[in-house]
Amino acid sequence: MPKPQYPTKEGIWSKGQRxxxxxxxxxxxxxxxxxxxxxxxxxxxxxxxxxxxxxxxxTMQATGVLNILKDVEEEFGEKGQAVVRRAINxxxxxxxxxxxxxxxxxxxxxxxxxxxxxxxxxxTILYASLEKPWITxxxxxxxxxxxxxxxxxxxxxxxxxxxxxxxxxxxxCEDFNGKKFHPVVDKIIPHGADRCHFSVDRWEDDxxxxxxxxxxxxxxxxxxxxxxxxxxxxx
Length: 235
Fold this sequence. Notes:
It comes from Candidatus Desulfacyla euxinica. The chain is of the alpha+beta class.
């Protein structure tokens, strides 16, 4: 399978502009605003800072979270796994809630525009990723992730830990605008693709488990199968 190619002119970072005219009225704001302002102040009028060191620091933190999940699963089983999942949910919810509170979206956006523009903020700010987004229909938006901070460190199965952050983010978005949506990923860079691809559909709540959570739970069960050597899937 083809690998990502860099440099690339595809996609947008957090300060990029989307093709939709309505995006011109969007102002994306970061979570942890006070801390972000402190960082910007520390960097002002300096030319000796390499942004890659923040990536190094963040990768160390992400590795720590993944190791905590794996070690707790091994030591405490399903109960420990559930505790870590809830903690990561809270972190995802808090970050997304603050991002939404600090952002501005035009009031006349369609549901799919608002969803897609929020997702762009999640991808480019909360995940510091290079995104190529588009709106497919009134019910669906899609995006490719062309570069992700985890792509060169995580295995495909390791990506499951990020699902727990997204669970919290989905809840924060639902609380923000009352809309329910269902993201689906069908290819990822750590599995050999040249990009990650997601589709996001409107979800009609039927009172059951959210589809994103449901697949997270399947992966959670597989984690224990891997420990036992009984997982038949390759990733």
